[in-house]
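Students often ask why inverse folding is considered easier than folding. One informal answer: many sequences map to the same fold, so there is more than one right answer. In these notes we will look at a single instance of the problem. The structure comes first.
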């Protein structure tokens, strides 16, 4: 049996973020990632609620302007949806791209954040 006592506060904070009563900010996350993934995920955490960025914009923001596809792979490898908001990343034309957790869920999250 796992000790879930340490999860109470982060889970409560995440629920507040989902309903819009708090910003995600810095949740205590301990996930395995490459240095590149960490850069991408940190950039994703800077996207304001209700806004989106393209893979290309994220690539430029992390100083890797030709790495849009690698940014997409880093998004696909994100194990902590919402806390690392890869749902806020769209194609360069503004259309929704794939989402590890399902296209419909991505649409719902973006709609929820815009309200």
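Output (designed amino acids):
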């Amino acid at each position: 049996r796992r000790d879930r006592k340490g999860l109470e506060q982060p889970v409560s904070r995440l629920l507040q973020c989902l309903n819009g009563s708090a910003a995600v900010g810095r949740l205590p996350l301990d996930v395995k990632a490459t240095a590149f993934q960490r850069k991408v995920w940190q950039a994703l955490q800077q996207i304001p609620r209700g806004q989106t960025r393209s893979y290309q914009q994220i690539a430029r923001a992390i100083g890797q302007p030709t790495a849009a596809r690698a940014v997409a792979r880093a998004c696909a490898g994100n194990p902590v949806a919402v806390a690392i908001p890869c749902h806020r990343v769209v194609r360069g034309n503004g259309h929704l791209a794939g989402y590890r957790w399902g296209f419909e869920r991505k649409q719902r999250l973006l709609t929820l954040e815009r309200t």
